[in-house]
Design goal:
2 domains, Ubiquitin-like (UB roll), disordered N terminus, about 450 residues, 4 helices, elongated, single chain, mainly beta, three-stranded mixed sheet
């Protein structure tokens, strides 16, 4: 991404028409009165999709705190650009009137991604964030450039019952694996059903099929991916291809006040996954993931995020676990300030990553109108510190070299592409490493194999 594109992004942020924040201020005079009627205006989203998010029901006493929570749940659907709530006095109490402006239901656009290893790829895409006006997300794109990728995503977060959900992803990627110094072809298929347990807990099952094909060494003169004797690691257990079916289960606690821009609360996940073995293929290992995130408000528009990610695997590298499934530390999504594919890179089957990040909302997530369409955008200043390491045994965590990085950045929330992060980081050796990345927040992206 060049400076011209960055300037365009900033111009959009500061010049587009910005609506007032969603508010319940106009309801204050009605607080405590009986809710006599609830009316929706401006919505194409099915009425039952909205109804089931509202705690406030006809016959209840109007409570502004509960109304604010209802609005936040509606925002979390990510289908509305604005949500305004007003009141009309009635003979028996008050009529609540929800006035919506919806984000466009389907949008063709040019998608693009930037990764530490492979640079920029872009291409045509289509996204529907409210397919059939039922809060169903469908996304498909084809990218080419630094790598080639085809991807289809489908998410239905609440089908029936207590948030019974279904997610599906399928992708095909051809790229150079810089951290392992070989060309690879990746085919991946994932299905993930889930349900709520009470208000704050979720349970998910997962089936994944991952096919990794080794297309040969990129640079035979490089020291990356070499043993001390000068031979290259064999990255697959098979001759050229590893087929890796897996089953997993995860337990999640989520008390965040917002999915897209949390100010307070917890997001915690414990996941157990079995790969290969009785499921087939040459691999045979288990993965245990512990992901803990805490958001702490410290002042208006300001918060701190504390996050730790531990991933432990049971199995022997090169025998049960292929080397292309090991972990590396470096790049914009692990420990910022280090290159992702340095020759002094170290790797292992286990990882630990810790993050402390301060965020200040320069532009709180706002509603904008562009060419008659409605979106939400925002901007944040950040200051951060990361620490991480990898190892092949749990006991080695305290013995291995830890990498520590710190820096500042600016994050821009944009329609379709999610978050553009522009960061400048230093490592503890004083080396400077600026990055421009289009991605989810780091604590999401650090869970991925390609990050």
């Amino acid at each position: 991404m060049n400076l011209k594109l960055i300037s365009i992004i900033f111009a959009l942020l500061f010049s587009l028409q910005i609506f007032a924040n969603d508010t319940t201020a106009f309801l204050k005079i009605y607080e405590g009165r009986k809710v006599d009627k609830i009316t929706f205006k401006g919505n194409k989203t099915k009425k039952y999709i909205i109804d089931r998010e509202l705690q406030t029901q006809i016959g209840d006493s109007l409570n502004l705190q509960i109304i604010a929570e209802d609005i936040q749940r509606l925002r979390n659907l990510d289908v509305f650009a604005t949500i305004n709530v007003g009141g009309i006095e009635t003979e028996n109490g008050v009529e609540l009137v929800y006035d919506f402006k919806e984000i466009i239901a389907a949008l063709p656009y040019v998608s693009y991604q930037i990764s530490d290893e492979n640079g920029l790829a872009l291409g045509p895409a289509v996204r529907s964030g409210n397919f059939l006006y039922r809060d169903i997300t469908f996304n498909a794109f084809f990218l080419f450039g630094g790598f080639t990728a085809y991807r289809v995503e489908f998410s239905w977060p609440w089908i029936t019952g207590n948030h019974i959900s279904f997610d599906m992803e399928a992708s095909h990627i051809v790229r150079e694996s810089q951290i392992d110094n070989y060309n690879e072809v990746i085919d991946n298929f994932l299905v993930k059903p889930g349900t709520y347990i009470g208000k704050d807990f979720r349970l998910f099952g997962e089936f994944e099929f991952l096919r990794l094909e080794n297309e040969g060494i990129i640079d035979s003169s490089s020291k990356i991916n070499q043993f001390p004797d000068g031979t290259f690691r064999k990255v697959t257990l098979g001759n050229k291809v590893d087929n890796m079916p897996s089953l997993g289960v995860s337990f999640v606690q989520d008390t965040r006040d917002s999915f897209t821009n949390p100010n307070k609360g917890w997001f915690n996940e414990v996941k157990i996954q079995k790969t290969g073995g009785f499921l087939g293929g040459k691999t045979d290992f288990e993965t245990y993931t512990f992901d803990f995130q805490k958001y702490i408000p410290i002042a208006k528009r300001q918060r701190i995020q504390l996050a730790t990610l531990s991933t432990l695997r049971r199995g022997e590298m090169g025998i049960d676990i292929p080397y292309n499934m090991d972990f590396h530390i470096g790049g914009a999504n692990t420990v910022r300030g280090y290159e992702v594919a340095a020759e002094d890179q170290f790797f292992g089957k286990n990882q630990f990553i810790g993050t402390l990040e301060y965020r200040y909302d320069v532009i709180k997530p706002q509603n904008i109108s562009l060419f008659g369409l409605n979106y939400r955008i925002g901007g944040q200043l950040t200051a951060f510190a990361d620490a991480g390491t990898v190892s092949n045994t749990f006991d080695d965590y305290l013995k291995e070299k830890w990498r520590i990085g710190y820096g500042i950045g600016f994050g821009i929330l944009l329609p379709s592409v999610n978050t553009v992060r522009i960061e400048a980081a230093f490592n503890r050796d004083g080396e400077f490493n600026p990055t421009i990345l289009i991605s989810f927040y780091k604590t999401t992206a650090q869970r991925w194999r390609i990050r």
